[in-house]
Amino acid sequence: MIGSAHIAQYLVANGIVDTNSIVGGQLSITVAQGRNYNFIVDSDKRSLLFKQALWLEENQKATGREIRFYERALPGLPSALAARIPALVFADEAGGTLAVEFVANASPMFQIFHDEPLDVGAVDAARQLGEFLGDLHGASPCVPASDAGLPDDAPWAFRAHEPTLREFGVLSHGAYNCLKLLQQNQALCQYLDRASAAWKADVLIHADIKSDNLLYANAAGDGDTPAGKLHVVDWESVQLGDAAWDIAGFLQDIILYWLFSIPLLPGASVAAAALQARCPILALVPALGMFVRAYGSRSQRESLRTLLPRAASMTAVRLTQFALEFAHQHNSLLPQSLMALRVAEGMTRSPDWVSMLLRGEQPAFGRP
């Protein structure tokens, strides 16, 4: 592991920065947040994100997967797609390190929903993501994903209700309680099993589409014209998989944005509290509709008529995953995890909820 005291020496030794930047006082290195031990490297020439895997086996595998994506799969993608992915500057798969361009002046995608009118910034970001995913999935025949050493199995979330002994052993108290609640819901567990059986691996997918990995970089604009550019980062989970899983990532974020805007009212039912949401779910329909139209205009591999119901079912899977991870992170079974499970269960009873939203109807996700 390369610590703060030795990172500059490592960067120079591998030609990532030059000594003039250090001597001239033009090099800045700061620790970056993330699942690994990362640094943001600023010099007079460029800004980089330096990533290195922790000793955990899953971290090392994820870093190796991202390196293989950059070196073997990315060159086969159209230039328009590559332009939205931070460029690779350095990679050492054996050492578990890589450096990519750092996206400056950018915010996670759903921060735009706080800062911009819903009919301008958020809708434009949704359009860009829809186009990107449509192009990514449509370009898959040109990408030798199998030759890149990328996996094709369903993510662990499909078996979240049946953890391995090793996974069970590292659960926090909060995640343990969340798992008990999930396992008591046999309808939802059976739903996870059916969704896993329906998994198909026929396109290249990012596999971890969520707000933190969708950076909307600000740029100069005038009036109400959106000026931001969407960048898709963190390719540690990239694989050969189901296009619906990537779409479900955006749909999950729509749901989570709504859930986190619901006030936590003591004694109130889920349905009653949802009526007080700062951002009602129907207010997100313009962004959702733009995303769907943009995706459909770029990818013709599968009809939206069949793809969207599958994506909706996988959104329930992703919400289940979120509930467990959120409880694990906070070591407590917080209301957001409970609401995510409730919505996931409700979605299993309303598989056409995406169509309902696009028609301006309010799905009954939760019970009073």
The number of strands is 10
Proportion of residues in β-strands: 5-15%
Low-confidence stretches: none
Number of helices: 15
Instruction: Determine and state the CATH class of the largest domain.
Output: Alpha Beta
CATH topology of the largest domain, what is it called? Answer: Aminoglycoside 3'-phosphotransferase, Chain: A, domain 2
Tell the overall outline: globular
Helix fraction, binned, reads 40-55%
The CATH superfamily label of the largest domain reads Aminoglycoside phosphotransferase (APH), C-terminal lobe
Strand order, sheet with most strands: 1-2-3-5-4
Taking all Cα atoms into account, the compactness measure Rg is: 21 Å
Distance between the termini: 51 Å
Mean pLDDT: 87
Number of domains: 2
Give the SSE string. HHEEEHHEEEHHHHHEEEEHHHHHH
Going by CATH, the architecture of the largest domain would be: Alpha-Beta Complex
Structural class: alpha+beta
Give the biggest sheet.
Answer: 5 strands, antiparallel
How would you characterize the overall build of this protein?
It is a single chain. The chain has 368 residues and is α+β, with helices and mostly antiparallel strands. 46% of the residues lie in helices and 12% in strands. The protein contains 15 helices and 10 strands. β1 and β2 (38-42) form a beta hairpin.
Looking at this protein, list some descriptive labels.
Phosphorylase Kinase, domain 1, 2 domains, five-stranded antiparallel beta sheet, alpha+beta, globular, three-stranded antiparallel beta sheet, Aminoglycoside 3'-phosphotransferase, Chain: A, domain 2, 46% helix, 368 residues
